[in-house]
Amino acid sequence: MLTARKVAKTYENGTQALRDINLTVNRGEVVYILGESGAGKTTFLKLLLGMEKPTAGELVLAGISLINPRPEEIRRLRRQTGAVFQDFKLILGRTARENVALSLRILGVGWATNKKQSEAALAAVGLADKMDNLVGTLSWGERQRVALARAVVRKPQLLLADEPTGNLDEVSVGYVAQMLTLAVEGGSTLIVATHDSRLIERLPGRILVLKEGSLTKEPASLRGQTACCDGGVE
Amino acid sequence: MFANLGYFFKEAYRDTAQRPVAVIFSLISIALLLLFTAFVFAGGEQLQWLVNQLGREAAITVFLRDDLTLTQRAQLQEKLQSLEGVTTISFVSEEEALAKMEDILGKHSTELTAKAGFNPFLSYFEVGVVPEEGLGVAGRAEVLPGVDSVRDNRQTMERLTRLTLVIRLGAIFTLLFVGLVMMITISHIIHLGLMAREEEMEIYRLLGAGPLFAAMPFLLQGLLLGFAGGLVSFLATLVVFPALGAKLHTALPFLPLQGGMELALAVGPILLLTGTLFGLCGSLLAQYQARS
Questions:
Q1: Which residues of chain A lie closer than 8 angstroms to B3, CB-CB?
Q2: Nearest 10 degrees: CA dihedral of A64, A65, A71, A74?
Q3: Which domain holds residue B41?
Q4: B198 at interface of A, judged by CB pairs closer than 8 A
Q5: pLDDT at B82 over 80
Q6: How confident is the model at residue A232 (pLDDT cuts 50, 70, 90)?
Q7: Which neighbouring-strand residues pair with A34?
Q8: Taking CB atoms and an 8 Å cut-off, how many pairs form between chains A and B?
Q9: How remote is the C-alpha of A27 from its chain's centroid?
Q10: Is residue B125 domain-shared with residue B217, that is, in the same domain?
Q11: How does B80-95 read in b/e, with b if 16+ C-beta sit within 10 Å?
């Protein structure tokens, strides 16, 4: 699903966000990327969504090279991907239902199917009674769940989530874990940037740690399932 | 894309409804501009109609000398009849000529004859001709004995045709100018919408939407705004043109003018098409500006 060879990202101001990343993620795998703020987790997810380009190395996702992709390749990749952003990227002036339905509408899903699946996704994250509320009126945690429903509803090949449980209570973390589990069972590959052990406990997966832009060994304190990464590990 | 057509229309409406005052003022501006264009086009149509009517008449008038005897008049009629290209011929006496003018001018004619103190009209032959032979017949008739003068409507027709061309050219320039102003007006409205929804556009892109998905509601908005402007101006012509036509007919009863309603129906499609087309162009311009 994903192959990264010596991937690096240096911003124009000289900041080196990622360096020498080597990684292979197989289809259907669950991968957690852990790290402190500024470690490069979000940058790595941005590379995978085509929001940023690597400055060195080789990065191939779902058969598409992300070194210098064409716009239509980026679109194709994004249509196969569900993403939960740290700042959610929801349309605040629209209802929760409209935000989730937009995800399917872009894929060309017909009105009736779209309505049914959007409602089901929102119900699954515990927002059945708030579907027609404007997102701007929802709490932080509720917005996070709308964002998750929007990502999962399209049954993506790849599910990327940036801190999907940040600031959530136990109940909400339960909803999120349940949704992610369903997505993985449905065949999605899951890459999550997080430092929330509650999620990792509920949905085990491979744990990678990013430190100052480089992948390091898995910390012993976490119950990771496999080794951290292939090659290039400090 | 067709699965989302309803959604695109809904989004276009939603965006329009968010700026009702600006949209209404734009609509009024567009409708007024198109109404102005309609007047220029209608002027061209009216002149063309006049030319066609005169062309269809294809007749020359052969005025007779005052001192012509009945025998000489009969001989002249025979000679005229024998000319190549003549189809019909009928005699109009001085009294009939006066009566005809009275029919057209009404009481003004009586005032004119009263001032002159006599009937100023000459008797004449109305000679129907094959249209392309009109000038030749006139030339040959002019030299026949007993003929005072010959008048044909060819020169008038030529002048009217030239004037029609000038007005039509003016109409095209007006259309281009109006189109340009319309494009700028509509692109401004669309641009406001695009700026207000910049973040939404970014979200669309992150979800994998193509450029057309984000552009469609705005394309529809420009298209509908232009069409609505065209429709309003068309409805205005349906009211204004018949009223104006009736006044013109009263003022110039001797001219075979086209009815106001017919004119409005003739320029209607031009207004609707122009409105829609330039509305779409305005939207494309706004999107181009937003991208660059």
A1: 108-111
A2: 50
A3: 2-54+158-291
A4: no
A5: yes
A6: very low
A7: A209
A8: 44
A9: 15
A10: no
A11: beebebbeebeebebe
- In chain A, the domains with their CATH numbers are 26-50+79-225 (3.40.50.300)
Cα angle, residue B145 at apex, residues B141 and B147 outer, rounded to 5°: 60
User: CA B153 to CA B58: how far, in whole Å?
Assistant: 8
Whether residues B227 and B270 fall in one domain: yes
Give the model's confidence band at A76: pLDDT under 50 very low, under 70 low, under 90 confident, else very high.
Answer: very high
Q: How far apart are CA B14 and CA B2, in angstroms?
A: 19
Domains in chain B: how many in total? 2
Confidence of residue A228 (pLDDT cuts 50, 70, 90): very low
CATH number (domain holding residue B75): 3.30.70.3040
Asked whether residue B89 falls in the same domain as residue B25, the answer is: no
Instruction: Calculate how close chain B gets to A189, using CA atoms only, in Å.
Output: 17
B104 and B175 co-located in one domain: no
State the DSSP H helix or E strand holding residue A6, giving kind and residue range, or none if neither: strand A2-10
Say if residue A54's pLDDT is above 60.
yes
In DSSP terms, A9 is beta-bridged to A18
Kindly report the average pLDDT of chain A as a whole number.
87
Q: Within 10 Å of residue B111's Cβ, how many Cβ atoms?
A: 11
How distant, in Å, are the alpha carbons of A22, A56, A212, B203 from that of A8?
10, 5, 12, 26
| B1, B3, B203: residue with CB nearest A91 | B203
Q: Residue B272, Cα to own-chain centre: how many angstroms?
A: 15
Structure tokens of B46?
């009216």
Between CA A173 and CA A165 the distance in angstroms is 6
Is B141 a domain residue? no
B207 lies within 8 A of chain A by CB: yes
User: With contacts defined as CB-CB under 8 Å, which chain B residues touch A76?
Assistant: 208
CA B134 to the chain's CA centroid: 27
The reply to whether B183 and B93 lie within a common domain is no
Q: Does residue B112 belong to any structural domain of this protein?
A: yes
SS3 B279: helix
**Location of structure tokens 């030339």:** B139
Give B163 or A79, the one with higher predicted confidence: A79
B74 plus B179 within the same structural domain? no
Indicate whether B30 and B94 sit together in one domain. no
Which residues in chain A are closer than 8 Å to B205, comparing Cβ atoms?
Answer: 78
B112, B129, B146: which is the final residue of a domain? B129
Digit-coded pLDDT (tens) for A190-201: 999 988 888 888
Tokens of residue B78, six digits? 């025979």
